[in-house]
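Researcher: Structure for this, please.
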Amino acid sequence: MAAFEDYYEILQVHPSAEPEVIEAAYKKLAQKYHPDKNKSPTAAEKMKRINAAHDVLSDPVQRKRYHAEWLQRKGGGSKPGGTYALNPPKPVVKPSRIRFANMEPGKTKRTSFIIQNAGGPYTRIWFSNPNSWVRVVDYRSMTASEELPLEVVIEARGLDWGESATEHIRVKLDEEETTVTAEIQTKPKPAAKPKPKPKPPPKTKRQPPPAQSSPKPKRRRFKPAVLTIASLAVVSVLLVIGIDMYHSRQDKIVFMSDRDGSEELYLINADGSNLVRLSYTGVEGVG
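Model: Predicted structure, token format:
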């Protein structure tokens, strides 16, 4: 005799679930575990159990008969849709508190948390996305055969210098809820760096001063009076030279007694051809 299986648990629905809920759960699981899409070696066996559970729970007659046996094994109410002594799902998150410390403004950092079920069967899983400084960027099942445990990846972006903030990510299995607390703390604003002191200019060897050439003597500029005196001096010199040249000729000047016994001054040419009397009134030719 085959072992009794909990079809509600296989389809992950509540025993009081409506037919449309059962149908939606079946389609979701069939899409995930169909051998054409899931190459896991356990997918075919898992799909066979899902089909068996769906065949029973989707048929009202078979479901009523199955439900009566299920109640005997589990205990609870008398018919589907009634009140049952079932454990509700219990969402558990690990870690339940995530802290992003020493973040820099604008920088991003990623981490993740895990969602698990520590209670009864569930039909729906849901989690919020704050989409603020922290947001959900990805999620994936950690096994090929079950939806849970589920890894949820979140990303945080650094706020301004020295700021902190807190966000809560809500996680629900059906109507049961828990939260993940995310905190962020950015680094304090760094102190302004002092301006570097300017480097002194490199020392250079002192070059000897260039040799100074002796200044050229300035040309003296003579004043007009000085020029006049100089001109007169030159004329005097030329006059003396002229007189010397005149005396250098062999002409002679002699005193001679005149007939009346007076002395007269005469100029005799060098060749004796001419006798000129020099008087106080002028020059007279004598012969």
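Researcher: Any notable elements?
Model: The chain has three domains: 7-74, 91-186, 234-285. Residues 234-285 form one domain.
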